[in-house]
Write a structure and sequence with these properties.
Layout lengths: L4 H11 L2 H4 L10 E6 L4 H17 L4 E5 H12 L2 H9 L3 H12 L1 H16 L3 E5 L10 H8 L8 E9 L3 E4 L3 E5 L4 E2 L6
Parallel strand pairs: 1-4, 1-7, 2-3, 3-4
Antiparallel strand pairs: 4-5, 5-6
Helix pairs in contact: 1-3, 7-8
């Protein structure tokens, strides 16, 4: 387990800066940022994100957290019901269950409209995308980021990613190479 305090001090300085909030210095690129972390630190990171949101809110920077796991549960509850879905799981093998889950969550027709609705309702200054590791393999991070760029253009989005990002590819948990995604900036490399 690592000391994540310097990382979150840096994030606060960057995210609360007027230039970041105004989406300056992006060269016409979409305002997407990746903040990587070691998956072993998941619990500490979740708490640090909560504290960062509070600290930013106290500075007048409203944050909308889009937790993919929570959104998944919200959709399942609405579409099928959690209890019924868990009963269905008992009768399926792993691949059938994954297919059923992906069918219910249909990224373009179900998940993205829900995210768009939440973004429009909140009108936050910054969006945080969390829960990425919790929804693997039925939701892939590059699919979310590719589809999100059509929805989340008005405010910067920071994706908290449990793994590595070299500016070209995402490696979930530092082990699983996702499809290439090069449209986001590594927020740790931005000078405060």
């Amino acid at each position: 387990m690592s000391d994540i305090s310097p990382k979150f001090e840096h994030l606060f300085k960057i995210i609360s800066s007027p230039g970041f909030l105004a989406k300056q210095s992006l060269g016409g690129e979409i305002p997407f940022f990746i903040s990587t972390y070691d998956a072993k630190d998941e619990i500490k990171i979740s708490e640090a994100i909560r504290l960062l949101k509070n600290k930013l809110d106290n500075q007048g920077v409203t944050v909308l957290e889009l937790n993919l796991y929570d959104l998944t549960l919200e959709i399942i509850e609405k579409e099928v019901g959690i209890e019924d879905f868990l009963e269905m799981e008992k009768t399926m093998d792993k691949d059938e269950f994954k297919d059923a889950l992906q069918s219910i969550l249909e990224i373009k027709e179900v998940l993205m409209p829900l995210i768009g609705e939440k973004i429009n309702t909140a009108a936050a200054k910054v969006n945080f995308l969390t829960g990425i590791g919790s929804v693997y393999p039925y939701i892939r991070s590059h699919n979310i980021l590719n589809n999100l760029q059509n929805i989340a253009k008005d405010a910067p989005t920071v994706a908290f990613f449990p793994g590595d990002y070299d500016g070209h590819s995402l490696n979930l948990f530092g082990l699983l190479k996702d499809d290439n995604y090069y449209r986001a900036f590594n927020i740790e490399s931005i000078k405060a």
